[in-house]
Write a structure and sequence with these properties.
Length: about 180
């Protein structure tokens, strides 16, 4: 560690190495930092969203619709897939966003029983503003890395996330 910047995880890992020299603590060195950054990022996101009078879940649904591209419309099933919530939760969320004027419901043209949820101009404006503020704040965090470090970290985290998702899917398949 000589000459390198230290953080709170270094202190924790050193204490565990002293107390449990029999364990390989390499995963803790990486994953504890990811966990701590995730908590800080959650607070930063909450701040960016609240500046636009949005809750995290509201941003999540509005962002899914915005990413869909014009006409910014998805079925409730597609929204479930994008946001990873249950259908009952999504119904409640769409109701609340409709009450705020951020989304509208339309009959599904190919399924008489179905509906499509569409982003309104007001919803598009608020999600765009919240995203711009969030990206400015996240750019400050990422400013500690140069371009090469950023690219390497992106590649490394992509590998970890893909492997974790694959392991989770395999584990879910074994349980069913």
């Amino acid at each position: 560690m000589t000459g390198q910047q230290r953080d709170e995880v270094d202190t924790i890992v050193e204490a565990w190495r002293r107390e449990r020299p029999d364990l390989d603590l390499a995963p803790m060195e990486v994953l504890s930092r990811i966990s701590r950054l995730a908590r800080r990022l959650d607070r930063l996101r909450a701040s960016a969203f609240s500046a636009h009078d949005l809750e995290y879940w509201e941003f999540d649904v509005l962002a899914a619709l915005r990413r869909a591209g014009p006409p910014y419309r998805l079925s409730p099933g597609q929204l479930l897939h994008e946001t990873l919530v249950t259908s009952g939760t999504m119904t409640n969320r769409v109701d609340r966003l409709a009450d705020r004027g951020f989304v509208t419901r339309h009959d599904h043209p190919k399924d008489r029983r179905g509906v499509l949820v569409q982003l309104t101009d007001s919803g598009k404006d608020v999600v765009d503003a919240a995203l711009a503020e969030l990206m400015a704040a996240e750019r400050q965090i990422m400013g500690a890395l140069d371009g090469g470090d950023h690219d390497q970290l992106t590649r490394t985290l992509r590998v970890l996330l893909a492997r974790s998702a694959s392991d989770e899917a395999a584990s879910d398949g074994q349980l069913n």
